[in-house]
Amino acid sequence: MDIAVFTVKELDIITNKKCNKIGEGAFGEVYKGTHNNQDVAVKYCKSSVAKGVARSRGKDGFINRIATKSSASQIDGHKALVANEIMVQLHIRHANVVRLIGCCMETKVPILVFEFIPNCLESMLHGAERQDLSLQKRLDIAIGSMEAIAYMHSRGPQSIVHGDVKPANILISDDLTPKVSDFGSSKLALKIKHVYADMNYIDPVYVKTGNITEKSDAYSFGFVLMELITRKKAQYNGTSVQPDFVKYYTDDDARRNMYDQDMLYTSDLETARCMECLDTMAAIAIWCLKDDVDERPTMAEALEKLKQLRATMQSSF
């Protein structure tokens, strides 16, 4: 895949001298710009960041994360994340992956230019920009996201593990097409040593052993599915969806009470049929969240189950 190389002066023109900041994070800052009559997101690393930690999304969908401090080792870490991002983008091209348009190599840490995607799944489910999403739309988002990750896993010796699958890293276009983003933690499957991931979604097997595999992405996607059907965030605190959902999964009434009830009123299916579809999505989520790695599905297997569910739903209309 061709990636354009920009100068700092060209990026000043593209971003109109950084006049529209749409996100700020541990990595740096993101500005909206225009290149070849196309909206783009330009991601800069900054040399110093404020003390404290926060996790949210900017108004145009990019994550806000403030790190504790900046140091030479952090800059080296940022360089590694950028190298991973570029490496992954050179290996893959998929309709459900955010496209890297180009980079600038004139700075200490390269600046990255991406296609601009206005929303993210996290903000659509939980943020101030939360939207009404029917069951059909949520299923389409799950399938599109899974297709991207399954594609990454299917490339043999060049297979790539994302390493940080979560709603914040699934961007959503205006037509609700999901696009997987943020490949700074991604690694070639044969070369994985360390990942920088959100502890709310990370595979506990990786935490215990340091080993991360394609099945780790499947585990993380189990949380994404749970958030899609419950609209509750996967956080390790008193409001965590994961312990209750897994604990009460076999209790039909308790499980169904945890589903986002808004879907029952925005679905074209009758309530009973809608519940059956949600039960199937819940079963796939629980399958992905198995403690035993060998009992988890591959992303391709889970994807096939979701596609079968969608085909069944469409035949019911």
Automatic annotation (TrEMBL):
ATP binds at residue 51. Keywords: ATP-binding, Kinase, Nucleotide-binding, Serine/threonine-protein kinase, Transferase. GO terms for molecular function: ATP binding; protein serine/threonine kinase activity. InterPro entries: Kinase-like_dom_sf, Prot_kinase_dom, Protein_kinase_ATP_BS, Ser/Thr_kinase_AS, WAK-like. GO terms for biological process: cell surface receptor signaling pathway. Gene3D superfamilies: Phosphorylase Kinase, domain 1 (3.30.200.20), Transferase(Phosphotransferase) domain 1 (1.10.510.10). One of its GO terms (cellular component) is plasma membrane. The keyword Nucleotide-binding applies. Pfam families: Pkinase. Residues 16-317 form the Protein kinase domain. Belongs to the protein kinase superfamily. This is Protein kinase domain-containing protein. It comes from Leersia perrieri.
